[in-house]
Amino acid sequence: MGATDTRPAISTPQKLTLMTMTAMVVGSMVGAGVFSLPRRFAQETAVLGSIIAWVIAGAGMLMLAFVFQTGVTLWISGHVERRVSPRISSILDRVAGILLTSIAVILLANGFTDLVQAAL
Length: 120
Fold this sequence. Notes:
Blueprint: H1 18-44, H2 47-77, H3 79-83, H4 86-109, H5 113-119
Helix pairs in contact: 1-2
């Protein structure tokens, strides 16, 4: 009889796809927000504060889901190009740029330089 190999088998590491990693990040961000907000409210207020926080967080997530659903539906059907004129599109681009710049300035002014540098 031959000698048996007692070494453990070496497995190759599994690789995650971009979609899987994105889902993990989004899930952890949403999960952290949903559970930390009511818990913090419950520590500062009574049960009523926690219930109010859950209702607000749930309504906000539901509204966000409806916005994304409507946006995807309009994009797939081609209504986005027909409903938004080039002038309005230009205005919306400027508003988005101003909002993002102001958010970056507020973060920098309050000492959150790590977040801004990580995004760059």
